[in-house]
Specification:
The complex is a heterodimer. Chain A is mainly β. Chain A is built from no helices and eleven strands. Chain A is globular, with a radius of gyration of 13 Å. The termini of chain A are far apart. Chain B contains no helices and eleven strands. In chain B, strands 2, 4, 5, 9, 10 and 11 form a six-stranded mixed β-sheet that branches. In chain B, a hairpin with a 5-residue loop joins strand 4 and strand 5. Chain B is globular. Classes of the chains: A mainly beta, B mainly beta. At the A-B interface, strand 5 and strand 10 of A face strand 5 and strand 10 of B.
Chain lengths: 112, 112
Amino acid sequence: NAGVTQTPKFQVLKTGQSMTLQCAQDMNHNSMYWYRQDPGMGLRLIYYSASEGTTDKGEVPNGYNVSRLNKREFSLRLESAAPSQTSVYFCASLDRNTDTQYFGPGTRLTVL
Amino acid sequence: RKEVEQDPGPFNVPEGATVAFNCTYSNSASQSFFWYRQDCRKEPKLLMSVYSSGNEDGRFTAQLNRASQYISLLIRDSKLSDSATYLCVVRPFSGGYNKLIFGAGTRLAVHP
């Protein structure tokens, strides 16, 4: 039982490049989330997926797209990276029985 | 005004000390409250939920004051291993996707 896994752990991009952050969970959770965390700020919700087949914008969706590929996987895509997207990105899934969000280890992204 | 506000700290305390953190939230309709713990360069993990009647888990006590819209966390007999950032988390309303609002965190450093 790996919980929530994310790849890659680290990434450096040049402005304008694209990339996809991968997330998978093996806990059979319906809801999944993508957050970004910046110094001095709380985690901010980028997109979420309440269940397989649905996605919705969170607080800071501009510059991102997501795909809920199946119940296990929820990916985040940056189409044209900008320095303002330098951040730590966390994926999470929700256990509704215990009302607990489980987070992946994070992806540290730097955009030059 | 931020939806969830915390004193960023750091709180520097000796081992064995008692330390308390407060957090205020702006949405009076908020439904659920949590404390998450985040170690340096790691993902957040649920420390405890906060119930209206207050609740205790070993050395940790959480309190909720709905009238004043604040949540507190008390740590007794601090250990070196308690050094971390403590995130105050609020769920603004019940919903299918269980959106959470995170505070920026309070940093605790316990020294020998």
